[in-house]
Structures are given as structure tokens and as C-alpha cells.
């Protein structure tokens, strides 16, 4: 284990879990416990159990005050819907639905057992698979960005134009593709020829669950499926990169809190690896920071 | 569209993510009473409790993805958020002072005690019994921390006990409470889904 010195050991963190569940730690201590929780399914399960108990302590059986609901209802905001759409889905919806609509229902932690998060399988098929079955056949492939892979020297100017162009396209794709995206992703993941690339944080192996799966279909349609990717601050965006002929090419901007995103790559100029960096909101021509996650495409 | 009355909490959250307002109303109907009661008990101040209750449900509306079913039920998620927000509020310096004054006043007029008793009456008997069964040195720190909003360090000072002892007793007390509730047929895991 390569835990930095200021990290709590499992035993130290475990001792604090009761107080943590009661919000009775100092902010600094609580933050250190949370760091440990990100990595420790056993402690997460214990906190979940404590929270169930405290939830009962608080339970008065009282009715929810009706007039308070009126005030809540009066403050609900929803974003503008895309034209004509009945039900506008949020970008994070796919991820949420995948987590909530799993067939097994009740999570294991509630049975009082240690419940690790769904293992991040090496084939990248992790916890994103369960999607609405009824929609599966409505396969709606989305037109994607064509990845322009250039041979030798690429002028910065050209790249600049390309980045701007791609940004625009990714933005459109995300919102336009949402209603049919789950079935398209499902179909892609079921297709044996689809390659899965797991992008994970670099450095020592972590178990906090942050990962991004890229599904590459043989036709060039590709999907990006984020898992626990932290939301960026205002003015920042995630940017997707593909390494093509040894060069990092921008595949587009993903926004501050990406959901499942469709894009496409040129099958004739395959990327050897993918990476996602956090950049200023306009995007950059070249990565300016260490990738948040990255992964190599295996043959 | 989902049948709200029979929908699981998880289904409700998915519908909320689709901006389906009746699903949020149903979540409020199921859990709003507990959220509001907890905020009121911790804050001892009706207007603040109402504000916290609104915030908790508005947050659920804006960020349903924060609910992770692997970390517990929707109710325990909402109550944990409620408790965290309430405690943040009372720990801010200004309101701490106000609360001390209020507590003194309410205790003096006995108004608070009456309200408190009524409140306690509606808490499930099994929970009360289990709580009463806990040794004092476990029950007190849990009550002071959870309902009083005190940190375990503050509790240690109040009870004149070592900090390490207090944090172990809190943890042990919660574990014991759970076992005791289970003996009475109250399965914390089973009540909300």
C-alpha cells in the first residue's frame, strides 16, 4: 500500500465511523474519513448501517407538512427542454438509471454485509450495462465526429479550427442523442466486435471507482461511459483525446460533468490510446494537465 | 409513466432525474415528514427547519445522481443530508449563540419540554425501547451528537470523558442499537424500500 502519511489507516478510520455518521467530526477529520470511504467498501457499508439506525431515531411518524410542499413546488426549476421533447433527460440520467434500475434491487449493504462496488472488470463491461430493456431495439446510431487524422505536420491553425468544430459537434451530440443513446450503447456493448477500453486514473491502483469506459464499434461509432467522474468547477471542462500516430488529437469537449456521450472515430486511423484531461472551458490544442483517466487500446 | 404509489424509491429517483415533478412530490410525501421532524429536532427552530427541508428536496430535484443506492436507502440518504445541513447551520458561530439563547428561553418556559414530549410520543415504541436499553454512557453521546449537533470532542468535554472513549462508545452504541432493533423486529434496512 502506498498511502500518504496523512491518510487514516483502516483502523483509525473505522474508529471514527460512528461519529462520522452522526456528523460529529471536525470538518478536517470528516474529510479524511471520506477519503478513506472512497477506497473502503467495508467502511462504506458500516456507515450505511449507522445511517439506517440514525434514520430510525429521527423518524417521528409525522406527516410531511403540505404547505411546505407548496413552497418547494414553487421553487422547482427545470432547464429549457429541447424543442418538442416531452421528457427531457439529464446528461447524467443514463448513469443514474444504470445504478438505480439494476434488477437485483436492494443493495447488499442493507443486508448488513460488506458490499464492494461493482467490480471494475478488466474487460470494461463494469456497472454501466443495465439499461432499459424495452428500448433496446430502437437502435439509433448517432452521426459522430469524424476524427481527422492527419499525416505529418498539422498546423496549429488547422488544429484550432478542428477543436472548435469538434466542440460544437460534441455539444450537439450530447443533447440530441440522449433519448436513443441507452439503446445504442446497449447494442454496442452487446456486439462481440466492439472493443472496450477502460480509462482509469494513473498512479497507484485505486478502488474509488472513477473510470471511463470507451466502447469502440467496428463501424467507428464510439461511446464514452463515465463512472464517478467528479464534477469540475465552473469554467472547466473535460476534454477527450485520442493518441493517433503518436500525437494527441482532441476528440472534443465533454463539459464539466459528462454523461454518456456518443462520438465517432475514423476506423482507418485508429487511436492507440485515449485520455481525458480537465481543461479551461474553451478547450486546448494540446493537453495541459495530467490525464484524469487514460487507457490503452489493446489489439 | 410510472405508478407513483407503487413505485420503489429508486424508481422515483429515476423519474425525478427525468424532471417528473409528481415523483418528487411522492418522495416528499413519503419522507418529508421525517426530514422536517429531524431538522426541527436538531435546530429547535421552525423557520430554519422548514428552510432545510426545502433545501433537501430541492437538492434532490437538482442532483438526484447524488443518491447512491449502494450507500443506503433514499430515506437514510435524505436524513443524512438533513442532519448534515442542520448541523452546519447550528455550528455557524452566529446561530450557535442564538441557539444557546433560544434553548435557555425555551427550557425556562417549559414550552420546549412539552413539545419535546409530544414529539417523543410519536417515535416508534421499539426505537424508544431500544434507546432506553442502551447503557447511559453510549446513549448520552449519541443523543448529544445527533440531536444536539455537538462534535464528539464537544461531547467529551460535556461528559468529562476521553475523546477516544466517546468515539468508541458512539460507534458501539449505534451497532448495539441496530442489533436491539433487529431483535424487536425492526429491520432498519427493510423499512424504506
Give the topology.
The complex is a heterodimer of chains A (299) and B (193).
Chain A: H1 10-15, H2 17-21, H3 27-39, H4 41-58, H5 66-74, H6 93-100, H7 156-190, E1 195-199, E2 211-216, E3 221-227, E4 236-244, E5 247-255, E6 261-264, E7 273-280, E8 293-296
Antiparallel strand pairs in A: 1-2, 2-3, 3-6, 4-5, 4-7, 7-8
Helix pairs in contact in A: 3-4
Chain B: H1 9-17, H2 21-43, H3 46-62, H4 74-91, H5 93-109, H6 111-122, H7 125-133, H8 136-146, H9 152-159, H10 163-183
Helix pairs in contact in B: 1-2, 2-3, 2-4, 3-4, 8-10, 9-10
Short description:
Chain A has a four-stranded antiparallel beta sheet. In chain A, strands 5-4-7-8 form a four-stranded antiparallel beta sheet. Helix content of chain A is 31%, strand content 17%. In chain A, a hairpin with a 2-residue loop joins strand 4 (236-244) and strand 5 (247-255).
- The outline of chain B comes out as globular
Unreliable stretches of chain B (pLDDT < 50, length at least 5) are 105-123, 189-193
Largest interface: A-B, 61 and 84 residues
Task: Write down the oligomeric state.
Answer: heterodimer
Strand content of chain B: under 5%
Strand order of the largest sheet of chain A: 1-2-3-6
| Cα radius of gyration of chain A in angstroms | 22 Å
Overall pLDDT of chain A: 68
Secondary structural class of chain B? mainly alpha
The end-to-end span of chain A amounts to 31 Å
- Element-level helix/strand string of chain A: HHHHHHHEEEEEEEE
Order of helices and strands of chain B, N to C? Answer: HHHHHHHHHH
Amino acid at each position: 500500500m502506498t498511502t500518504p502519511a496523512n491518510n487514516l489507516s483502516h483502523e483509525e478510520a473505522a474508529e471514527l465511523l460512528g461519529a462520522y455518521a452522526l456528523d460529529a467530526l471536525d470538518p478536517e477529520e470528516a474529510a479524511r474519513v471520506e477519503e478513506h470511504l472512497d477506497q473502503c467498501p467495508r467502511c462504506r457499508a458500516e456507515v450505511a448501517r449507522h445511517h439506517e439506525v440514525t434514520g430510525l431515531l429521527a423518524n417521528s411518524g409525522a406527516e410531511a407538512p403540505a404547505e411546505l410542499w407548496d413552497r418547494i413546488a414553487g421553487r422547482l426549476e427545470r432547464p429549457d427542454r429541447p424543442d418538442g421533447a416531452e421528457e427531457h433527460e439529464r446528461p447524467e440520467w443514463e448513469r443514474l438509471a444504470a445504478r438505480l434500475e439494476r434488477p437485483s434491487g436492494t443493495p447488499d449493504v442493507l443486508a448488513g454485509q460488506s458490499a464492494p462496488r461493482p467490480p471494475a472488470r478488466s474487460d470494461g463491461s463494469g456497472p454501466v450495462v443495465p439499461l432499459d430493456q424495452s428500448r433496446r431495439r430502437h437502435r439509433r446510431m448517432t452521426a459522430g465526429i469524424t476524427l481527422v487524422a492527419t499525416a505529418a505536420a498539422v498546423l496549429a491553425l488547422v488544429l484550432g479550427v478542428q477543436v472548435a468544430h469538434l466542440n460544437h459537434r460534441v455539444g450537439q451530440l450530447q443533447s440530441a442523442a440522449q433519448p436513443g443513446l441507452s439503446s445504442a450503447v446497449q447494442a454496442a456493448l452487446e456486439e462481440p466486435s466492439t472493443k472496450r477500453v477502460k480509462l482509469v486514473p494513473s498512479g497507484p491502483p485505486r478502488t474509488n471507482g472513477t473510470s471511463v469506459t470507451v466502447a469502440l464499434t467496428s463501424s467507428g461509432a464510439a461511446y464514452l461511459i463515465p463512472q464517478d467522474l467528479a464534477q469540475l468547477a465552473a469554467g472547466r471542462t473535460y476534454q477527450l483525446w485520442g493518441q493517433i500516430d503518436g500525437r494527441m488529437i482532441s476528440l472534443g469537449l465533454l463539459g464539466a460533468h459528462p454523461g454518456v456521450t456518443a462520438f465517432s472515430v475514423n476506423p482507418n486511423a485508429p487511436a492507440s490510446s485515449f485520455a481525458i484531461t480537465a481543461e479551461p472551458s474553451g478547450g486546448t490544442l494540446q493537453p495541459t494537465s495530467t490525464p484524469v483517466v487514460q487507457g490503452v487500446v489493446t489489439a | 409513466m410510472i405508478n407513483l404509489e407503487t413505485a420503489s424509491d429508486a424508481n422515483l429517483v429515476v423519474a425525478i432525474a427525468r424532471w417528473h415533478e409528481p415523483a418528487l412530490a411522492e418522495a416528499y410525501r413519503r419522507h418529508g415528514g421525517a426530514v422536517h421532524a429531524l431538522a426541527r429536532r436538531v435546530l429547535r427552530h421552525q423557520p430554519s427547519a422548514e428552510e432545510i427541508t426545502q433545501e433537501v428536496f430541492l437538492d434532490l430535484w437538482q442532483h438526484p445522481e447524488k443518491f447512491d443506492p449502494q450507500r443506503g436507502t433514499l430515506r437514510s440518504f435524505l436524513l443524512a443530508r438533513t442532519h448534515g445541513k442542520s448541523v452546519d447551520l447550528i455550528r455557524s458561530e452566529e446561530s450557535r449563540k442564538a441557539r444557546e439563547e433560544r434553548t435557555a428561553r425555551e427550557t425556562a418556559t417549559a414550552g420546549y419540554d412539552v413539545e419535546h414530549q409530544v414529539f417523543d410520543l410519536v417515535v416508534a415504541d421499539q426505537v424508544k425501547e431500544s434507546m432506553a436499553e442502551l447503557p447511559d454512557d453510549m446513549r448520552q453521546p449519541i443523543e448529544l451528537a445527533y440531536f444536539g449537533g455537538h462534535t464528539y470532542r464537544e461531547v467529551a468535554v460535556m461528559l468529562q470523558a476521553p475523546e477516544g472513549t466517546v468515539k468508541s462508545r458512539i460507534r458501539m452504541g449505534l451497532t448495539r442499537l441496530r442489533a436491539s432493533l433487529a431483535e424487536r423486529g425492526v429491520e432498519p434496512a427493510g423499512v424504506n424500500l
